[in-house]
Every structure is written in structure tokens, then in C-alpha cells.
Amino acid sequence: MDLIQLLIGGVASGCIYGLVALGFVLIYKATEGVNFAQGDMMMLGAFIALGFVNSDHFGLAFIPGVLLAAALMGGVGYGIDRFIVRQIFGQPQFALVILTIALGFVLRFIAGSIWGYSPLVLETPFAGQTVPLGRINIGVADIVTILVTALLTLALWGFFAYTRIGLAAQAASQNQMAAYIVGVPVKRINSIIWGLSGVVATIAGVLFASKGAIDPNVGLLGIKAFAAAVIGGFGSLPGALLGGILIGVVEPLAARYLPGGISQMSPYIIMLAVLVTRPNGLFAQMHAKKV
Amino acid sequence: MKVIFKTSYDRDIDLHKDGWSRARIAALVAVLAALPFLVGEYYLAEATNTLIWALAGMGLMLLVGHSGQVSLGHAAFLAIGAYTDAALMNAGLPFLVTFPAAALAAGLFGALVAIPAVRMSGIYLAIATLALFVIVEEMVIILEPITGGVGGIMAPAIEIAGINFDRYANLDHFYWLCLTVVVLVTWGYANLLRSPTGRSFLAVRDSEVSARALGINVTRTRALAFGLSCAMTGLAGALMGHYIAFFNYELFSVFISINLLLVVTIGGLGFIQGAFFGAILITAVPQLIAILRGVARDSFGLDIGGMPGLDTMLFAMILVGFIIYEPTGLYGRWLKTKVWFELFPLARRDMFRRQKSYLKTERQK
After folding, report:
1. Where are its TM segments located (chain A) (predicted)?
2. Predicted pLDDT at B12
């Protein structure tokens, strides 16, 4: 019984890691850059949602507040690419790594100076509720997390498979030069993808906040999401999600059945093991350049 | 502009361009050596800190600037150096043994990690080093009998041949010790860069494919660069341990890794001098902020001390500005200024214009 409860909780937190990882992978697939500020974008999204929803701030209803926050973060993501990242187009890859790390600090400072550094709680309609299922209780927040993740994944799949922009993004991610030549507006597509990953980050942030308090340093969760993305193979959307769920499940199990300290290390140990044995991840889609 | 007529190959690969630049370096070292007689205790401590940061920065510079690999977890190697040194000294070994041992431990660990890591391309390596950092941090807590765990560990005072190098009692001695280490490492580093090994680092950085075609063993070169870089960082870690005197795992946070990256990026990637410029900046900016805070409070009645994270934020903004507007860093800017004066009045603005380029892909499809 214990095991099932751990598993469900693990899958739910794994979904959050997976969603943050999804944000990394979206940007990596489209632009070959890695956004190290993804965790901080998740944090900022959660705080903006909190600002709209909580009764001592704007006090909007939950769903419209979250949607508004997602739209706003989409704009933030679009703006970051349009005005900052585009400036270093063509510079080596690690320039973007360092740039986004720095941006993460800026976002953390912004959130810290608006909402303060003490943990805050997002008011959700399903806070603390549980559903009894046989002899165990399942948190409604966990169920909502899993459902929303599934829906979002479907929506993203539909976006890339059927819409005009999604198809253009796929083309740009396969070969930017060729896509540019056949008329895909590569730069604008990149910005749109950044915006999209801002939206995904916000949803991940809201789901994360529904399970506990948030403070400006929760963005460090992004490191775990990296592990998830790497385990899944950095270029694979379903891989990122599955990698996240794997980490989410292993962590509580390790905490329960293995000696202390291993649990915190487990995501990274799995990741290093995957990197050593299968350097391209479990669901590799990328291949090294050959002459 | 002075043109040097080179008459031998040895002259061509000489460390210094001419006698003038040799004299300048000698003068710089002389001034640094005389520093304890020139400035007070406070500034001497700051200078020592700068030297230690420069040493750590050189370690990362070798990796990022000269072999083109990114590490986001170099604080882990600082920690390994510091803990190896302190733990061995606490076990009764002399500093002359523990100090090289710290470099060896960090270097070997780095090389060991590098063997799987170097097969990964840039971004994977960055993430793997980040993960490594988290693992090392947890290991420090778990290995409590050696590292003192959360409580921390004491780095005992250094004594070589009866001379005391304690950081508090004999700061000038400790400063000279750091200076000697930094000068020796810099000299070795500069010589490394003109050796075949150093040249192969540069070749691997600029194009892995062409380096391989020229017969360079890319995996070995990268692992070697990683190991050497970690060894240098380990030395810096050992000195940092003695500088702080009593430390626990929190000294080596992820922010230290980021600060190190800042040192090499702002200083100027690919120049040894860059590590020094960056180190000066990173130790000077907190002081400047403190002074500015004092000015703001006294003359405007404005209390910006109450905003936590302000200096991190300032660092981050400086970093963003440099990456966008001056990717070659402070040293690159210095070189450009120098050229402008040397060529005066013939220098043109477009001389340093960046070439337009498109994305250099690492993918096959």
C-alpha cells in the first residue's frame, strides 16, 4: 500500500520534472541552445500565477489567473529570445549557457524583490484534498498534475504535428539553414519556441506550487530537470517526460529503502550512468556530426 | 608599431615578444612581491584572495578558454583540493606533501571523470559536471569522519622549514606563498601553451574534426586538459582552505562555480591574463558595492543594503553585458585599445567587427 502511494506521488513530481525538462528540450530542439534559466522561468511563472490568484494580491479566479500568468510568461520567453538571446546568435554554444545562467540570477532577483525570499503558498481550489482509494489516500494535486501533464503533452504533440508554425519549427530544428532558404522565418520561430517554453514552465510552476510552498530559489529544481532531459536524450520530447517520471519515482523509493544521502544523489547517478553507457540518452534522436 | 625580425624558430615560440615585454612581467612580479611593504593588512588579505581566485580561474581557463570544454561544477574540484589538503594535514603530514597531493587528488579525479565525460559534446559535459558537483557536495556530507561533514573542518597553519605561514599571524608570509604558487603555475601554464600538448588543446577547441584529421587523439587530449585544469583548481582549493581557515561544504556552493565561469568569461576567454583580470574584477566588485552602499546611505539616505541578492544580480548583469557586447572580455578590450593606440591614427572601427555567422550545428540531421 505504501509502495503504491509512493509511486503515485513519485509520478506526479516526476511529471513536474518532466515538464521543466520539456521546456529545455523544446528550446534545444529548435535552436540547439540550452536554456539554463528554465528552472527560474518555472519559478517566475509560479510567482506570477500566485500574484494573480492569491486573495491578498489580485485575487482572480484560479483558472483565468493561471492562464493569464502563462500568457505573460509566454511574452517573457518571447522577449528574452527577441531582445537578448538573438544578439548572440552565431556565438559558440557555451556563450548561451553562461548567458542563461546569468539570466536565471536576474529572474531570481526580480522575483525576490517583488515577492520576497520567504516561502509563499499558492491558493489552489484543490489544496490539501485527498481522494480515498481502497485503503490509501491520493492527493487531488497529484491527480491534477498527472492529468494536466498528459493533456499538455497531447496539445504539444498536436501543435508540432498539425499546425503551420509547429511544422515550421520542426523544419527549423532539423536544418536551420535549409529551413531559412525555403522561407521559414527561423528567427521568429525561435522566439515563438522560447515563448512556448515559457508557457510550459509556468504550468510546471503552478503544478509545483500546488504541492507546497515556493520561494525564489526553487528554480534550482531545474538541475534535476536537466538530469531528466539527459536521461531521455536531449532531443526527445517523450524522452524528457519519461526521464522526469523515472527520476520522480526513483527519488522517493531511494529515500524509503536506501541509506540516507543516496536519495538526493540518485537523479545524478542515474544520469551519469546513462551518459556513460548511452551518451545520447535512452531515446536518442540526435547523431554526432560526421565528416 | 614595432615589427620584430625573427631569426630562429626558438625566437618564434619565445614566451615574450621582446625584451621590453619580459621586463614588464619582471616589474609586475617585483611590485607584487613588494606589496606587503606597500599596503595595509586589509588590502593584503584582499590581494591574497585575488591571487587564489586567479589560480582557480586559470584552472578553468585552461578548460574553457583553451580546450573548449565547459564545466559548471568546478567548485567540486576546489572542494576536493581543500579537503584533501586539510584532511592530510590534520593527519600530521607536512604542507609540502599535502599540497601536491591536493592537486593530484583533484587532477586524478578530474581525469577519471573526464574519460566518460569528454566523449560528450559541449552541453552534455556542462550538465555532467553540474551533476558531479552535486554528488561531490553530498559525498562531503556523507564522509563525515574525513571532512567534518556539516560541522566543517579546520585547515591547520602551514609550516615549511620552521617558517610559519599562518594566514592570520603571518599574512605577509602566506601572501608570498600564494604569489610563489601563482607565479610558478602561470609560468608552467604559459609554457604548456607553446608545447605540442598545448597546441593540441587549441586545435581540439577550434575544430575537433580537423584536429582528429591531423592525428591528434582527441579523447586523450581532452582528458588531459580536464585533469590539468582540475589539478590547478585543486591547488587553488587547498590555498582557499587555508585562507578561510575553517570551512564546511557551504564554502564550495554552486555559486562559486558560476563565479569562476564569470572570472574566465569577463576576463577574456583564451587568455591567461584574462583569468587575472576576471579575478581582480570579482574580488573588487563586492568592495565597490559596499562603498557605494555607504555613499548611498550617507548622502541620499537610501538603504540598499536591505536588498539581498543585489551583488549577484549586478554580477549577472555585467556578465550579460559582456557576452552581448564584448565577448572577448576585459583582456580583449585591452588588446583592442592597445592596437588603437599603436596604429593611431590609422585604426578603423570595422577592424574588430564581428563576422556575421550562422549557427554551427553539431548535429547530423
Report:
1. 6-27, 34-53, 59-80, 92-116, 136-160, 192-214, 226-250, 257-276
2. 81
Contact A109 B310 (CB under 8 A): yes
Angstrom distance (rounded) from CA A229 to CA B118: 19
Q: Does residue A117 lie in a domain region? A: yes
pLDDT at B52: 93
All cell numbers assigned to A23: 521546456
Residues B118 and A231: their CA atoms lie apart, in Å, by: 17
| Nearest C-alpha in B relative to A235 | B363
CB within 8 Å: B327 and A223: no
What total of structural domains would you count in chain A? Answer: 1
Whether B353 has its CB under 8 Å from any CB of chain A: the answer is no
Q: Is residue A76 part of a domain?
A: yes
DSSP alpha helix (H) spans, B268-309: 272-300
B144 touching A (Cβ < 8 Å): no
Number of Cβ atoms within 10 Å of the Cβ of A175: 15
Pick from B117, B265, B312: which is nearest to A105 by CB?
A: B312
Instruction: Report yes or no: B364 at the A interface, CB cutoff 8 Å.
Output: yes
Q: Cα–Cα distance between A242 and A201 in angstroms, integer?
A: 17
Query: Rounded to an integer, what distance in angstroms lies between the CA atom of residue A229 and that of residue A285?
Result: 13
Handedness of CA A211, A212, A216, A222 (dihedral sign): negative
Q: What is the CA radius of gyration of chain A?
A: 19
Spatial neighbors of B152 by CB under 8 A, at least 6 apart, are B246, B247, B248
The dihedral built from the CA positions of residue B111, B112, B113 and B118, taken in this order, carries a sign that is positive
> Nearest by CB to B316, which of A105, A175, A226?
A105
Inform me whether the C-beta atom of residue B132 falls under 8 Å from chain A C-beta atoms.
Answer: yes
Q: Is the pLDDT of residue B356 over 70?
A: no
CA angle (B134, B139, B144) in 5-degree steps: 140
B110 backbone φψ class: left, alpha, beta (φ>0; ψ -120 to 50): alpha
ipTM: 0.80
The domain ranges of chain B are: 42-352
Q: Compute CA distances B45 → A62, B158, B171, B243, whole Å.
A: 54, 16, 7, 9
End-to-end Cα, chain B, rounded Å: 48
Nearest to A265 among B138, B262, B308 (CB): B138
**A–B: how many Cβ contacts below 8 A?**
152
B323 touches chain A (CB under 8 A): yes
Domain contains A101: yes
Residue A9 belongs to a domain: yes
Range of the domain at A118: 2-215
Shortest distance, CA B145 to any CA of chain A (angstroms): 15
A 10 A CB-CB count for B332 gives 20
Q: Does B306 touch chain A (CB under 8 A)?
A: no
pLDDT at residue number A289? 44
Is residue B265 helix, strand or coil?
Answer: helix
* Min Cα–Cα distance to chain B from A125, Å: 33
What are the 10-residue block averages of pLDDT along chain A, 291 residues in total? 80 89 86 85 91 80 87 93 84 81 88 84 77 76 87 89 88 83 89 92 90 82 85 80 89 81 81 78 55 40
User: Residue B316: its chain A contacts at CB < 8 A?
Assistant: 102-106, 109
Q: Do A97 and B70 touch (CB under 8 A)?
A: yes
